[in-house]
Amino acid sequence: MLKQTEGSHAVAEAVALCRPEVICAYPISPQTHIVEGIGEMVKSGELTDCEFLNVESEFAAMSVAIGSSAAGARTYTATASQGLLFMVEAVFNASGLGLPIVMTVANRAIGAPINIWNDHSDSLSQRDCGWIQLFAETNQEALDLHIQAFKLAEEVSLPVMVCMDGFILTHAYERVDMPTQAQVDAYLPPYEPRQVLDPAEPVSMGAMVGPEAFMEVRYLAHAKQMHALELIPQLGDEFKKVFGRDSGGLIRSYSIDDAETVVVAMGSILGTIKDVVDEMRADGEKIGVLGITSFRPFPITAIREALKNAKRVVVLEKSLAVGRGGILASDVRKALRKQPVDVFTVIAGLGGRAITKKSLHALFLKLALETEESLTFLDLDWGVVNRQLERERQTRRSGPAAENMLRDIGTVASKIA
Amino acid sequence: MSLQPVKFYQTGTFTVGNRLLAPEERSVQANMERTNSLNSGHRACQGCGEALGARYAIDAAMIASQGQLVAANATGCLEVFSTPYPETSWQIPWIHSLFGNAAAVATGIAAAIKVKKAKGQGGDVRVVAQGGDGGTTDIGFGCLSGMFERNDDVLYICYDNGGYMNTGVQRSSATPPAARTATTMPVGPEPGNAFGQGKFVPAIAMAHEIPYVATATVADLRDLEYKVKKAMTFRGARYIQILVPCPLGWGAASHDTIRLSRLAKETGTFPVFEAEYGEITSSSKIRRLLPVEEYLKPQKRFAHLFGKTPAIDTIARLQAIADKNIRRYQMLDKEAN
Question: Given the DSSP bridges, would you call strands A287-292 and B212-217 parallel, antiparallel or unpaired?
Fold first, then answer.
């Protein structure tokens, strides 16, 4: 059914359609509207056979999820930013135990300085935690990916993060096609755990594993993710049969066949990039877009195949490996290591900095003339940076510099170039 | 006087040797049908109070729940010595997740069980969480307090040996003042653990007004079994803290585990009581009041108090803590003493 609704609410409804049995919630922006929505559905009786728990921290949220999933319940939670970091120990534990928990990450920057706006620092910091990570481009895709995520998680016995851009998607009202309960039931069978805490068949879970088997256990976690590489496109195909639309998959390309320059990105920024690509194509530029939906497992082969004709690749990412450069760019570079292609890294939109069509247009034209691989910080205010660097040269004083920058800029509004 | 009541206990002990009692009055451990929840073959040290306490507590919980029990375990000695992969001593469904989240994992299990039961897909399975004092009073305290506050249907059992024994005897918030640990060495002007305000979690649990709180020691195993069984008659959050001597960490002889547990109570150092909905309902009385030295002396962790010049002031402060316990928890039977 078509409806105009908030991204968070669309996800809440989609999760409810998946018949979750235990949901734990701890508030953190910009994820709150999702669990508020589901909480209301449980309390009103609209969503039955579901326990909704308000817990005391994100660490507890993931720990409760571990317990309920191990006891055989389909389990969901949502978090963002500092919340994801606060639960990290349990995040690793959930994947290590092979528990098919689904969690929304409403992507948000990580402090300090504290910042509530969108970038991908939070979930990308968890790139090696063993969870599958799927990135949604639109609210429709966010909704669809949650339905696929439960099926994927339960098939491979691994937890799945569905990542959607905080505020940009979570708080945006858009048209979505909300599936019916019958459609979701046809696609997603009830959860049948492989192993469960049951007095009729006692098992010990989470036992200590020494050097004699730990490597093998870790390899098998990797093997599961490699299996997910095959499964994700299949689940996308099955999804299309039931719901009648393309959603999910490993990667998604746009105007790529004859493209000499391909921009690679994840999440909602793909929409803006596509608009710029359309404009540049109208001017005769051979440029295309490759969106990565599955960040973990990372689809190396699919990306290599998709970019085989590209002459230059621009990886635009909302994350920064401090002291190194790009996170996504490093992974893409690895996929293309044997191809004669330059990979340009662009760090953009950190802490919610707006990424405009104008800036992207200028950036792509500029990078088209460069011959050496480079690292660009999009729309960085060099005046502010240089003033601070000069201050630091003059006064040897450690400590945070954020306050100086704000004083220089003299504004509290978000910056749009 | 021609008739004298028969006493099966040896004078001055609470030995569980109760073969002469009627079967229904015998301890769970004396029952041939006991589950051996924590089975033999595990790797606890000789004289481990925690292994003893866990065996009695979980078997009692198993009897009380008709075998319908799931356990969540914090990281710690109990976890490590019971489940070196691929071996396990647990005869019940058991999960270990992390050091600081046993209470929350148990909450999750209880939530899943509730839903499954409502759906007609599962029975009335009960949940226990267990951990040492480090996993309970320190790193797991947030999850524990959350579980209490929500009144989740979980019995949490803390095996209190007063320190991080699994990692090599470091101080926890349950370590007694003046005790030597690897991080509170007996050196400097104030040797051993500092005198803080203490963190007695049973009292904090009572402040949450949860249905049932109790303390016990491995010296009185009948009392321990009784309290576990009683805890299982309540729904909601319940908490039992069991004093379990650690021969390694305390620097005590393995054969002194029971004696030290008894002395902890008899000197007033560890109050043994139970409380319902935030109010004390009973306390175990001291049979023969002893000075704290009797409890401290057999333990090497307090040896620095008894050198050539005994630390009289420090011992007096420890005695004052015990005296306060005796008053607060009414550990003396006024008529008997």
Answer: unpaired
Question: Kindly report the CA angle at B133 between B326 and B256, in degrees rounded to 5?
Answer: 65
Q: Is residue A404 part of a domain?
A: no
CA distance B97 to chain A (A): 6
Residues from chain B that touch A198, judged by Cβ atoms under 8 A, are 93, 125
Residue A133 in any domain: the answer is yes
Put simply, the answer to whether B108 touches A68 (Cβ < 8 Å) is yes
Distances (CA, A) of B268 to A341, A351, B15, B216: 77, 57, 21, 13
Instruction: Note whether A89 contacts B92, CB cutoff 8 Å.
Output: no
Q: Looking at the DSSP assignment, which residues form a beta bridge with residue A133?
A: A161, A296
Task: For chain B, 337 residues long, give each residue's pLDDT as a single digit of tens.
Answer: 567 766 555 544 555 456 667 777 788 888 888 999 999 999 999 999 999 999 999 999 999 999 999 999 999 999 999 998 889 999 999 999 999 999 999 999 999 999 999 999 999 999 999 999 999 999 999 999 999 999 999 999 999 999 999 999 999 999 999 999 999 999 999 999 999 888 999 999 999 999 999 999 999 999 999 999 999 999 999 999 999 999 999 999 999 999 999 999 999 999 999 999 999 999 999 999 999 999 999 999 999 999 999 999 999 999 999 999 999 999 998 755 4
Measured between beta carbons, the chain B residues lying within 8 angstroms of A75 are 108, 112
CATH number of A181's domain: 3.40.50.970
CATH of domain B33-328: 3.40.50.970
The domains of chain B are located at 33-328
Q: Does A127 share its domain with A263?
A: no
For an interface test with A, give the residue of B37, B99, B105 to mutate (most A CBs within 10 A): B105
CATH code assigned at A256? 3.40.50.920
Do A108 and A228 share a domain, yes or no? yes
A187: tokens are 């696609």
Print the domain residue range for A336. 251-377
Structure tokens at A145: 């990916």
Cβ of A21 and B115 within 8 Å?
yes
CA distance A13 to A164: 15
Give B94's contacts in chain A (Cβ within 8 Å): 197, 202-205
Residue B96 is nearest to which of A90, A206, A213, comparing CB atoms? A206
- Looking at the fold, whether A6 and A128 belong to one and the same domain comes out as yes
Number of domains in chain A: 2
Q: Closest approach of chain B CAs to the CA of A200, in angstroms?
A: 8
DSSP code per residue over B42-94: --PPTT-HHHHHHHHHHHHHHHHTTT-EEEEE-SSHHHHHH-BTT---B-S-E
